[in-house]
């Protein structure tokens, strides 16, 4: 099966889980704090606003390959039938694009590329502190 042909919102669904797990591992090891503090910190990394900002940084840095950029575009342009919570639709769509490429890399078993992307995402958010 060609994973880049999967519904982009399905890829974003997978990518959301992968990013959330990576961020949780990162902050648990970094902070060694109580769950409420961990949750507050995690929101900085996985919010739609943060993901949209990170996608813009990645795009400006020409980080994505052509195939990955196509997945990002498909994820960003996908019509979601759920309402974006606490954000505008453009921000929500950008975050869906980032999640879609994460999901794509995960399903393609592109482990090195995925780890590089996840580390870059964390670095971008940390630099915005």
From TrEMBL:
Its cofactor is Mg(2+). Its EC number is 3.1.26.-. Pfam families: Ribonuclease_3. GO terms for biological process: rRNA processing. It comes from the Bacteria. It is found in: Cytoplasm. Gene3D superfamilies: Ribonuclease III domain (1.10.1520.10). Keywords: Cytoplasm, Endonuclease, Hydrolase, Magnesium, Nuclease, Ribosome biogenesis, RNA-binding, rRNA processing, rRNA-binding. InterPro entries: Mini3_fam (IPR008226), RNase_III_dom (IPR000999), RNase_III_sf (IPR036389). The keyword Transferase does not apply. GO terms for molecular function: ribonuclease III activity; rRNA binding. It is an enzyme of class 3 (hydrolase). The keyword Repeat does not apply. GO terms for cellular component: cytoplasm. Its main location: cytoplasm. Residues 10-109 form the RNase III domain. The active site is at 16. Involved in correct processing of both the 5' and 3' ends of 23S rRNA precursor. Processes 30S rRNA precursor transcript even in absence of ribonuclease 3 (Rnc); Rnc processes 30S rRNA into smaller rRNA precursors. Homodimer. PANTHER family: MINI-RIBONUCLEASE 3. Belongs to the MrnC RNase family. This is Mini-ribonuclease 3. The lineage of its organism: Bacteria, Bacillati, Bacillota, Bacilli, Bacillales. The gene is mrnC.
